[in-house]
Design a protein that fits this description.
alpha+beta; 5 strands; five-stranded antiparallel β-sheet
Length: 77
């Protein structure tokens, strides 16, 4: 089994926040959309090799694994 250190990116919008988890080995991941009312949408994603440039152009900044996982597990809203 291969150990992977995922990378996390975040962007704040007026009514919601998006946090993205990227597996740098196989370029798949999870996108969380966190709405102001506490609702969380989860989507599995497959990225291409341009994902890092795309995230930068779209205004995403690096985020933490802790924040992502707290939302993923429903421990914060």
């Amino acid at each position: 089994m291969q150990n992977v250190v995922h990378q996390y990116f975040k962007r704040l919008f007026d009514d919601f926040t998006i946090i993205v988890q990227v597996n740098p080995v196989n370029l798949n991941g999870i996108e969380l959309t966190i709405h102001k009312n506490g609702e969380i949408e989860k989507r599995k994603m497959e990225f291409d090799e341009d994902i890092y440039e795309d995230l930068k152009v779209d205004g995403f900044t690096e985020s933490s694994s802790l924040e992502f996982n707290l939302y993923l597990k429903g421990l914060v809203k």
